[in-house]
Amino acid sequence: MPDKWYQNWFNSPYYHILYHQHDNAEAEFFIDNLCSLLNPPALTKVLDIACGRGRHSVYLNKKGFDVTGIDLSHSNIEYARQYQNEHLHFYEHDMRHLLYINYFDIALNLFTSFGYFDTEKDHLNALSSFRKALNPDGILVLDYFNSAKILRNLTQKGIKQTEGIDFHITKKVEKGKIIKSISFEHDGKSFNFQEEVAAFYFEDFQRLFKVSGFEIVNYFGDYSLNKFDEITSDRLIFICKKANV
After folding, report:
1. What is the rounded CA–CA span in Å between residue 99 and residue 47?
2. Domain extents in the chain
3. CA dist list (Å): 132 to 56, 66, 99, 110, 212
4. What is the tens place of the pLDDT at every residue in 91-119?
5. Which of these, 24, 83, 20, 77, lies nearest to 51 by C-alpha position?
6. Which strands make up the sheet holding 157-162, listed edge to edge?
7. What average pLDDT does range 191-205 have in this prediction?
8. Is the pTM of this model over 0.85?
9. Could you say which architecture CATH assigns to the domain 5-146+200-242?
10. 114-132: burial string, b at 16+ Cβ within 10 Å, e else
11. In angstroms, rounded to a whole number, what is the distance separating the alpha carbons of residues 156 and 140?
12. Angle at which helices 55-62 and 24-38 pack, to 10 degrees?
């Protein structure tokens, strides 16, 4: 069975080159604002779901929390493990499968690390795993792009140059997914990758959360935690708690 697009792309070093602007400073700014909002005590148990190379996890650990990062990408986890310590651990793990039960105080799913799967069942399985991993008073923070704004301003073709590489990017919408094709040449070789992310709207998340046993407590439109506006906001950030089911 061939690998899914996210297995290939997230394991590639070129993913990190293309998105280099999403750096530690951005991660730390967002985490600082979340901590001001949630005010978690020292050694709060945090699960960073789809942690990538660990930029959020490492900073959370520096702020005094007990952090577990999980990611499907072997190369990302190998990279992140250089930062491990007594209160910071990383595991190669699929978010759709349960890792812990009733253990974490906060679960984070950041930088549109959701919406990748082919079926609603898979998305619900992931949310169900998030819910089961949290203790009864646990909080989920899910950070997604604002699909409404993206679709309204969709640029079909473009070139992004970084580190001497011309990334040729085309975008389209197909079967409810925003599909981004990325092609480039480097060191005499041609590369082609693809991203396929569900164009979930606010109403879609309302339904998914309800079915999977979450209740929306608050929501925001950017990393400064300003109010969400469907037309202008870049992000759609949810704060959820376990619903009484």
Report:
1. 10
2. 5-146+200-242, 150-196
3. 22, 18, 9, 18, 10
4. 999 999 988 999 999 999 999 999 999 99
5. 77
6. 157-162, 165-174, 177-186, 189-198
7. 96
8. yes
9. 3-Layer(aba) Sandwich (3.40)
10. bbbbeeeeebbbbbbbbbb
11. 33
12. 50
Give the pair of three-digit tokens for residue 77: 């986890």
* Residue 166: strand pairing partners: 161
- Per DSSP, the three-state class of 18 is helix
Side-chain-side CA neighbours of residue 9 (13 Å) = 18
Q: How far, in Å, are 19, 49, 151, 181 from residue 98 at the CA level? A: 29, 12, 33, 31
User: Residue 2's pLDDT band (boundaries 50, 70, 90)?
Assistant: low
Here the tokens at position 80 are: 């992140």
3-state secondary structure labels for all residues of 35-93: HHHHCCCCCCEEEEECCCCCHHHHHHHHCCCEEEEEECCHHHHHHHHHHCECCEEEEEC
Beta 66-71 vs 88-92: how paired, if at all?
parallel
Owner of token pair 């990017």? 169
Q: Could you tell me if 186 and 175 are in contact, meaning their C-beta atoms sit under 8 angstroms apart?
A: no
Question: What are the distances in angstroms from CA 54 to CA 24, 34, 193, 196?
Answer: 10, 17, 22, 22
